[in-house]
Specification:
21% strand; alpha+beta; four-stranded antiparallel beta sheet
Length: 333
């Protein structure tokens, strides 16, 4: 409670200040604000807040300078840095690239790791190692557990920000936070080694790209709870994705796929709201590619049968979004 109150007060303060200045808060995300000189058209300034950190996107330097002057009258503003939350932004005529090179170098030094010749995130048998660790009743070494959780937390942060290629490895490692072994600790350190060897990689967005946002969803059907996965792209690179266990057991591969597609469709609604506010233009429906023809048909067909009538309504939310032309489901190999 003592930690939450100051944050709420700070957010209320900066929110009211930005609204008075002329910014409009996003309905989709309360920490995104857009400033337009005219009611319609493209924004001149976009602000993203993360606690007391702020990132500003601008079209004209004049607008940015005016905002800086106004902010300095009421707030203590730190010098502008070429990074945001340890994400380095490289901007040129053709691309905007997001990397975390310096953070990865600091992380490698912090855990006193000498990088090996690793060019893949982890060993192919990592899932089996995690399964064995969870099934085996063993005494967890305190130092091993502390170091393991520290490393997994660090690589998870990099994964979420700019390196989705770590998603599977981090997802597996995160399942053993309460029962790590020395073998799994070695795997976590291998992920860091891989990161160091590929530390200049990041997300590269193409300027002037005319292609529309699109996504893909998938699921692995298992006898227990399946895993949903989805990813969205814009301007040639990843913008959003997730992999998570489904809340209930799917009775067929089609059911598992429609559950994943519905989760992806809900994310598309959020992304569309941000896109249209920040870009100042209508996007139209978002293509969602699914590799299960039965799930594609189910998303467009309201006919109930023995295979579908037991599925909870929330897992069929995609039907409504397809009917409203927000989502356009298409089959893909």
């Amino acid at each position: 409670q003592p930690l939450i109150r100051p944050l709420v007060k700070w957010y209320d303060t900066i929110r009211h200040w930005l609204i008075d200045y002329g910014f409009v808060p996003s309905d989709a995300d309360p920490c995104v604000f857009v400033y337009k000189k005219k009611k319609y058209g493209k924004p001149h300034l976009i602000i993203g807040l993360y606690v007391d950190d702020m990132i500003i996107a601008y079209r004209d330097n004049v607008d940015l300078v005016a905002l800086d002057v106004a902010l300095l009258k009421d707030f203590m503003v730190k010098e502008v840095e070429p990074n945001f939350l340890s994400v380095e932004v490289d901007d040129n005529q053709y691309y905007t690239t997001l990397t975390m090179t310096k953070y990865i170098e600091r992380m490698t030094a912090d855990i006193e790791l000498v990088p090996g010749p690793h060019h893949t995130p982890c060993d192919p048998s990592l899932a089996d190692m995690v399964k064995t660790a969870k099934a085996k009743k063993h005494d967890v070494d305190t130092n091993t557990a502390k170091e393991y959780r520290r490393i997994v937390g660090k690589i998870l942060y990099v994964c979420v920000m700019v390196r989705p290629d770590l998603a599977w490895s981090v997802g597996q490692l995160s399942q053993a936070l309460t029962c790590p072994t020395s073998e799994l600790l070695a795997q976590a350190r291998q992920v860091v080694s891989y990161l160091y060897n590929t530390r200049d990689l990041g997300l590269r967005y193409k300027k002037g790209d005319k292609s529309k946002m699109y996504g893909m969803s998938d699921a692995n059907w298992t006898t227990s709870r399946s895993t949903s996965g989805w990813v969205f792209f814009l301007a040639g690179a990843f913008i959003s994705g997730k992999s998570a266990k489904q809340l209930s057991i799917a009775m067929s591969s089609t059911e598992a796929e429609i559950m994943a597609a519905s989760l992806a469709a809900l994310e598309a609604v959020f992304l569309l709201a941000l896109y249209e506010l920040c870009m100042g233009v209508k996007h139209g429906s978002v293509k969602l590619f699914v590799d299960n023809s039965g799930a594609v048909d189910m998303s467009k067909d309201y006919v109930a049968n023995n295979r579908t009538r037991h599925i909870e309504r929330r897992h069929l939310k995609i039907r409504e979004l397809v009917q409203r032309s927000i989502i356009d489901t298409q089959w893909i190999k």
